[in-house]
Design brief:
Length: 469
C-alpha cells in the first residue's frame, strides 16, 4: 500500500502586508479521489479524523472505497476499527466467469465516547443479487456482529445514524427493511445496539452516502442527536429538515428545506445548517431559525472554539472564513491543487491557527495567523474559466449553476437537451472576473438529461444535469 505524502509550503505575500498563509499536504493517494470526510467527537475535543475513498464499480484495488484514519503523532494514516471499516476484497465465481470484487463501508459511525464501539453498513462482495449487512463491534474490530436479520437489505443504503453524545448506550439508525415495509424508518437502541425498536416510518428520507459529488433528491441523508438536549433529534428528509422533541418517537418538519450539512457549535449552544447559498442558525435547538446569505454554496462548516465570531466553511472553489459570526465571508485559501473543492474541515482545540482541510483529492494542514488581517481581493480571482456542477442535481424544477472567470469576459451560458436542441439561454453578456451564479428553471421541461454549455475567452465548458419530475 503506497501513500504519497508531499510536503509543500505555499507562501503568499501581498503588498498590503496581509498575513502569510501556507499549507502542507498530509495525504493523497495516486488515482483515488476522496468522497467522504468524517470527524468523530465533540467540537472542543481531539476528534478522530477519517476519510473514505470513492468507490469505482469493477475496480479490484484494495483502495476502492477504502477508509483511513489520521494519526496526528506520526503524521500517518492507518486502517481504523481493526481494518473492518476498510475495503474487503473477494474472489467471485459465476461459471464460466470469475473476478475480484472489492467493497468498502458505504456508511459508518463511531461512538464519540468509545472509539472501540462502531457500526457500519456494507454491500456483500460477490452477491448474485444486491445484498448488504449492518455490522457492530464493541471491541475495536476484534469481533463483529452481523445484524443482517435486523438491518439486512437488497443493497439500499441507510438514511443515517448517530450516538447520543451524552450516553452512547442510546443510538439511532435510519433504515428500510421488512418491519417498515421496505420504507425508510428510524430505529432506536437503548442498550448499545443489541436490541432495536422501530420509532417511525418516514417515507422519502434521504440516503446517507459519503459522496462529495452528488447531492441530489435522494442523497445527503443524516440523523443527528443534539448535544444540548438528548430529546432533540434531527433527520434529513427529501424536502425538509425534520425534528423530534421526544427522543425520536415522532418527527415533524421544520421551516427549513433539506440541508447539505447540520452541525453544532457546542461552546455557544448554536445549531448550524448549510443550504443552497444560505447559512441557518438556531439558538434554541432548532425551534426557530435565522438565515444568512453566503457568497457561494458551502459544502461544510467548522466553528472555531477560541472565538465566538470566527468560523470556516468549505466550497467548490476553496476555503472561506468569517470573523463576524457568518454575517460576511472572504475567500481564505484557494491554493489547493489540483482540486479546490473542500468537503471537510476540522480544527483541534489549542491548535492556534491550524486547520485540517479535506478536498476531493487530498488532505491538508492549513496554517495562518488567526483573527488578523484580510485576504487580498486579488487572491479570490480564479486562475481559469470554470463551470461548476449544478446544485442540486437531479433537480425539480430549479437548480443553481456556478461559474468562474479569471478576467472580465463575454460569457455565454446555454442549456441543450439530449438531442442537442437549445432549450434555454441563462446568460449572454459581459461577466466580471470572479465567481458568479445563475438559476435554471426547468418547470416547462420534461424529465431527462440536459447539458449546460459555457463559452468564455475562447474556451468551452460543459456539465450534465438531470431533471427528475
Amino acid at each position: 500500500m503506497k501513500y504519497t505524502f508531499i510536503l509543500l509550503f505555499l507562501v503568499m505575500a501581498t503588498a498590503d502586508s496581509s498575513p502569510q498563509e501556507s499549507w502542507i499536504r498530509i495525504y493523497s493517494q495516486d488515482g483515488w479521489n476522496i468522497e467522504g470526510f468524517h470527524k468523530s467527537g465533540a467540537q472542543n475535543s481531539l476528534r478522530q479524523i477519517l476519510i473514505k475513498h470513492e468507490w469505482i464499480y469493477g475496480s479490484a484495488s484494495p483502495e476502492n472505497g477504502n477508509v483511513k484514519s489520521y494519526n496526528r503523532i506520526s503524521n500517518s494514516w492507518y486502517r481504523p476499527a481493526g481494518g473492518f471499516l476498510s475495503t474487503e476484497c473477494a474472489h467471485c465465481v459465476d461459471p464460466p466467469v470469475s473476478w475480484t470484487e472489492c467493497r468498502g463501508s458505504d456508511f459508518f459511525i463511531i461512538s464519540p465516547r468509545d472509539t472501540n464501539f462502531a457500526m457500519c453498513f456494507r454491500l456483500t462482495p460477490c452477491a448474485m443479487c444486491p445484498s448488504a449487512s449492518t455490522f457492530f463491534t464493541w471491541n475495536g474490530g476484534l469481533n463483529w456482529a452481523n445484524y443482517y436479520s435486523v438491518f439486512g437489505s437488497l443493497g439500499t443504503p441507510p438514511n443515517g445514524g448517530d450516538f447520543d453524545p451524552a450516553n452512547d448506550s442510546v443510538l439511532y439508525y435510519g433504515f428500510s427493511n421488512g418491519e417498515s415495509g421496505h420504507q425508510p424508518a428510524i430505529f432506536r437502541s437503548t442498550n448499545r445496539g443489541v436490541n432495536w425498536q422501530m420509532m417511525q416510518v418516514i417515507p422519502d428520507l434521504r440516503y446517507a452516502v459519503y459522496n462529495s459529488g452528488s447531492y441530489g433528491q435522494s442523497s445527503g441523508g443524516f440523523i443527528l442527536v443534539s448535544p444540548f438536549n438528548s430529546d432533540i433529534v434531527f433527520a434529513n428528509h427529501r424536502d425538509n429538515l425534520l425534528r423530534s422533541t421526544n427522543a425520536g418517537n415522532s418527527f415533524a418538519p421544520t421551516a427549513l428545506p433539506s440541508l447539505k450539512e447540520l452541525s453544532f457549535d457546542r461552546l455557544r449552544n448554536r445549531t448550524l445548517g448549510i443550504g443552497t447559498s444560505l447559512l441557518y442558525l438556531s439558538n434554541d435547538n432548532g425551534a426557530n431559525w435565522t438565515s444568512i446569505p453566503t457568497p457561494v454554496s458551502f459544502n461544510t462548516l467548522e466553528p472555531v472554539e477560541s472565538s465566538s465570531d470566527v468560523m470556516f466553511a468549505g466550497s467548490d472553489i476553496g476555503l472561506y472564513r468569517s470573523t463576524n459570526g457568518g454575517q460576511s465571508w472572504h475567500l481564505y485559501n484557494n491554493t489547493f491543487s489540483p482540486s479546490k473543492k473542500v468537503i471537510g474541515i476540522c480544527k483541534d482545540p489549542g491548535s492556534a491557527d491550524t486547520l485540517i482541510v479535506c478536498t476531493t483529492d487530498a488532505v491538508y494542514k492549513v496554517f495562518r495567523d488567526e483573527l488578523t488581517g484580510q485576504v487580498s481581493s486579488s487572491q479570490s480571482i480564479p486562475v481559469n474559466f470554470e463551470l461548476h456542477q449544478n446544485f442540486p442535481n437531479p433537480f425539480n424544477p430549479s437548480t443553481v449553476i456556478g461559474y468562474e472567470c479569471h478576467a472580465a469576459s463575454h460569457v455565454s451560458l446555454k442549456v441543450y437537451d439530449a438531442l442537442g436542441r437549445q432549450v434555454s439561454v441563462l446568460f449572454d453578456g459581459i461577466s466580471e472576473a470572479g465567481y458568479g451564479e445563475t438559476q435554471f428553471d426547468a418547470e416547462h421541461l420534461e424529465s431527462g438529461i440536459y447539458f449546460c454549455r459555457m463559452e468564455a475567452g475562447g474556451e468551452v465548458r460543459t456539465i450534465k444535469m438531470a431533471v427528475l419530475k
